[in-house]
Amino acid sequence: MKKAPKAFRTISEVAGELNLQPYVIRFWESQFKQIKPMRRKGGRRYYRPRDIDFLRGLKHLLHEKNQTIKKVKDTIVKNGKEFIVSHPKKRTVEASIIKNHQLEIKFSHTSEKTLEIKQIVTEEKKQKINSLLKSLSGLREQMLSRTNI
Fold first, then answer.
1. Counting Cβ atoms within 10 Å, is residue 14 exposed (0-12), middle (13-18) or buried (19+)?
2. Tens-place pLDDT, residues 89-127
3. 12, 20, 79, 80: most buried, per Cβ within 10 A?
């Protein structure tokens, strides 16, 4: 049974989700004071969704962008924890009208996905789609700016 999105996770669940070893997460805890999992009896760690988002951002900067721990610490001091939390979540939505009145929308997150609408008959439909894309983009920005997620 899959856990709810807001459920706390153990270190092994987090490690599996992020494709890391638990010792890497424990090491990052020693290096970054912003990682503060809740602890229960026996010292077992439970990570909140926000902790996991921060770890995901760290992984992105350290493993994918090849930044040093010192550089990431400087980034946190300069831009704050929220910058790290939102870093891998930067999503883009690109829309373009292509030949024969087709619409191609590219969504990117961890992998690129493309939605293709084969035919747009009227200018009114194009305007509705553009309006919807703007609304979705605005909602995305609001969600990324929330600190209590």
1. buried
2. 544 444 454 455 556 565 554 444 555 566 666 777 777
3. 20
- Residue whose pair of structure tokens reads 């990117």 in the numeric block: 108
Q: Is-contact 25 59, C-beta < 8 A? A: no
Give the fold, CATH level 3, of 9-88.
Multidrug-efflux Transporter Regulator; Chain: A; Domain 2 (1.10.1660)
CA distance 15 to 67: 20
pTM of the model: 0.57
State the burial class of residue 140 (Cβ atoms within 10 Å of its Cβ: 0-12, 13-18, 19+).
Answer: middle
Query: Using one digit for the tens of pLDDT, what is the confidence trace for 8-22?
Result: 899 999 999 889 999
**Which phi and psi (to 5°) does residue 45 adopt?**
-85, 140
